[in-house]
Amino acid sequence: MPEPERMAGVLAERMARRGDWPSRSPWIREAVEALPRHLFAPGRLYHWDGRAYVPVDRRTDPDAWARLVYADPDAAAVTQVTEGVPSSSLSCAAVVADMLDSLLLEPGQRVLELGTGTGWNAALLARRAGPGRVTSVEVDEVLARAARRRVDAAGVPVDVHVADGGLGLPAGAPYHRVIATYAVPRVPWAWVEQCVPGGRIVFPWGPLGHVALTVAPDGRSASGWVQGLAQFMSARGTGGRDGAPDYAAVRGTGPADGERPVHRDLAPLHAEYSLRFALRVAVPGLRLATAVDEDGVNAWLHDGHGSWASLTAEPDGTTTARQGGPRRLADEVEHAWDQWQALGSPGPREYGMTVHRDRQYVWCLDPATGPRWPVGDGAPALPRPAH
Fold first, then answer.
1. PANTHER family, alphabetically (predicted)?
2. What is the pLDDT of residue 379?
3. DSSP 105
């Protein structure tokens, strides 16, 4: 058996053991097995060698290429690198299955996909929805052209357009389902406007995972819960995480504006994903890294712009916060931490989002009565009471 086919079977069985195949959507595994990933992977992929992304060609090293395609259920295969940064990928199989399950797609429904990429996800959608039911938008003309060839060769033609996914595709509206394969900081209103009342929109929100919204009966809003936690590449031109300044660049070399003691155990900040998720919801633009040394847990915070903070474990067992820039990130994080605990330490799937034409916000526990945080562009925000 050729290596790609063998590895496809290994990956499928591993996903089965982990419970990655959604039980309510058996069609997904059937579609993946009928349309395996390697049929949609370009001949050149990229591997991170610790310093840079280096090409791996199927023609010269087919086994290494196949290992990248089927590396792990949670591993994406980088298919394009622009200025040293990944700009397109073949999404990891577990996330593709989870997002397709969240879409609740039925045969005959019209689907708009934003971000064609290799064409694999579009092909899976088309196998479920049926001929002529899937439209996909890709901003990169080279990627779009290659994706058209792949879906045609696989026998599941998809209507692929070169356009800005943030604008949707009005000419084909309305759609029953809308799905994005790249992360957005805010939901474009065009996605809601072009979806039928009761329709479903699945998309990755920022770096936090994917959300499924249902369009209201009057079409004037959409609301729904966080579904999964994988991270995605950002939409081009949105200043995504891959191209954002790191902590050192934001921190600079100047002195801190001030320092103070921290009177809490930082171990949960290092170990509890639910807390880190909650902080990134409540502290817009937050980038957070932690590490443990002989003195304890240390944390480095920044917002990708001009504000930063460090929480440093000292040899005497205390922790010191130092911060600088227009925001006081250490203060914001501690305030959000207290609020999360007061709410009962909810997990990521206890959060959701509501989108209106002129505003959108994330809520926790209950869309009507729970606390809300406005979705913005990284400016500081405090939770607002429900209205």
1. PROTEIN-L-ISOASPARTATE O-METHYLTRANSFERASE, PROTEIN-L-ISOASPARTATE(D-ASPARTATE) O-METHYLTRANSFERASE
2. 39
3. -
In the chain, which residues fall in CATH 3.40.50.150?
3-228
- Please state which CATH class domain 3-228 belongs to: alpha beta
Q: Tell me where in the chain the CATH 3.30.160 domain(s) lie.
A: 246-342
Domain 246-342 has what CATH class?
A: alpha beta
Q: What is the token pair recorded at 208?
A: 């936090």
pLDDT digits (tens, 9 = 90+) for 108-165: 999 999 999 999 999 999 999 999 999 999 999 999 999 999 999 999 989 999 999 9
Q: Which residues contact 312 (CB under 8 A, 6 or more apart)?
A: 298, 319, 320, 321, 322
Catalytic residue among 88, 91, 102, 234: 91
Report how far residue 205's alpha carbon sits from residue 184's, in angstroms, rounded to the nearest whole number: 5
The answer to whether 88 is a known catalytic residue is: no
Residue labelled with tokens 């067992």: 317
Q: Say what the alpha-carbon torsion angle 73, 123, 24, 104 is, to the nearest 10 degrees.
A: 120
**Residue that is written with structure tokens 């397709």 in the block:** 100
